[in-house]
Amino acid sequence: MGLLAVGTPLQWEDSLQYLEKVKYNGVTQLLRIMKESDKVKNKPFLWGDELEYILIDNKNNKLTVNNDDILIELNTELESECKKNDLVYHPEYGSYMIEATPYFPYSHKDIESYVSPEVNMILRKKFINEKYMDQRDLYLLQMTNYPRLGCKNFIGDYDCSGEYISPAIKNIFSQSLFLPDEITNKHPRFPTLTGNIRKRRNRKVNLQIPMFKDIKTPPFDDTVYGREWFDMDVKFIKEDLTAQGASDDLKSYKLRPNHIYIDAMGFGMGACCLQTTYQAPDLENARYLYDSLMNFTSVLLSISANSPFWKGFVSDWDCRWEVISSMVDCRTGFEENTNIHDNNYGYNLSADNTGLLSSPMKRIKKSRYSKVDVYLGCNKIPKDLSQLNDVEVVLNEEVFDRVTKELNGDENLARHFAHLFIRDPVVIFEENVDDVDDNMDHFENINSTNWQSLRFKIPHKISEGDAPEPGFRVEFRPLEIQLTDFANAAFSFLLNVIVQFMLSPKTNINFYIEMSKDKFHWVEKFKTFDECTSVVNKTCKITVDQIMHNEDSGILTTLVNPQLRALNFIAENETWEDLKNNKDNAKERLYYYLRIISDRSKGVLPTEAKWQRDYVLTHPKYAKDSKVTELISSDLINLTKKVYSYSPESDEEKKWYFKLFGEEIGEYLISHKL
């Protein structure tokens, strides 16, 4: 997310008159580029990554929300110095969050360049540490989710020691019981986004996450309390409640036993991730890449899992995905097609309650933050994708007809964009409603707020070859940030090799399966399109270990090994494991990148979510009540600091360090710090 422009974001009620205009202008901007897409060609393979950090007070390990000047200075006074060091720092949703990326995209000339992303990741923190963190005694934490976000005293520089939020400073945007608006980035876009999603859906966002059940787990979330500040405040019910006969649609909410209740966008968008983006040579290659990566999203998300704690509870979930999906869900009750939210749990909401919107409306199965629903198709397969796109999706019919007509009957691309444009723009800036030419702001208003597992990124200008303007790109979005730069670099390297394999002119592999297939359905045997009798591959549901290692369609065996040979990193008769048997330091590090992912997929090493949960559950002060106390949270964070620097000192630190990495990888990282 780039440095945000100054403007006047409209409140939801004021933006209603512009919704369709912004969408129409967005399609106009899209078509201006797409009608000349054949001129975007011969673009080099470039890629980049984004890491999001949590800013905490180094003394007490609590969040800090009053250091806005850091990002401002990094993007003004220190911008040229950042550029010289190949660094960019961006704002994110949370006022306690900082996003960092390389200034220039990565390209590869030699094997050492494949280690350079990790070097850059290290430099991102080193640079900001020297400029700010060390002086202010702050720390950039690489956790997906702060363990006690929303608990009492979770912020170090904001007083929430009494009630969760002071009644004197009502949090008017989220109306959360637990998160003050001060945790939201102060740029007006973010609080407006928070409030507008709540207003559009005509009730607060909400989710109930299953607790990890222990001996003394409370029967209900005991942090929930009654309040009557806002019209959307509700009465919490712990008994059965049906929609029929309820006197007030928005005034009752059923709590599920042994579940954690959360109620604000900050719980989702305040979580951190690792995202990577890849430039394809042209449109057709980008479409093929997008489609081919589809089935990799759930698998790699599961291996990167790193968020077992929510609002001070130990949860039964390992990943942030469903949390964010619910926390930015802007659908009305009608669009969700339910009389009672969350299958008889949650708001007692009438299905015809549309808030400020008017009919006609459509039923929409998913939040705007969700798994991809539609293949794009490419020139390697027939135009009829009905066998592959076998999941019914809602379309904006006007957009579908318009894009199909303007793009010479390309119904597959039209379906993709028409599905995105069923969503309303949730933040409109008053100053640029009529600004259509020479930018893509209205298109990106829709495209960039469809937070899907993959994002198809459109160039903003027509260019070819080595011209600096980006071409067609695909963003891989599900990965959770890892506790170390080594692990983040490992996932980045694995995806880099997979994408290079897919984009190689020699590759003609068919990765397509039916969209309806559940996660962990995997192709039985990868074949070229010429070898396939049908565009739809046969699949089976297998373990992550098998997905990574099986001989016929394993990620490491059938994708990584051939690409490493093509790069001349290993000989024709060697595998990725032979990278280890080499005096080249870069090759050895690449081996350990793949080794840690391989070992996690086998269960030899834990995911970082399991590792954190195990630490809490065995902490001497853990009361078997499914709760992460201030002390336990602080101890865990202190441990992750030692893990990040590969410098365990005490016997206890060494025990947990080697549980995470294993003896071989752990010793390697201690003796081979970059």
From TrEMBL:
The protein's Enzyme Commission number: 6.3.2.2
Q: Cite the Pfam families for this sequence.
A: GCS
Naturally occurring in which organism (per UniProt): Hanseniaspora valbyensis NRRL Y-1626
Regarding protein family, the annotation reads: Belongs to the glutamate--cysteine ligase type 3 family.
What is this protein identified as?
Answer: Glutamate--cysteine ligase
The domain of life is Eukaryota
Which lineage ranks, top first, belong to the organism behind this chain? Answer: Eukaryota, Fungi, Dikarya, Ascomycota, Saccharomycotina
RNA-binding among keywords: no
User: From its record, what is one biological process in GO terms?
Assistant: glutathione biosynthetic process
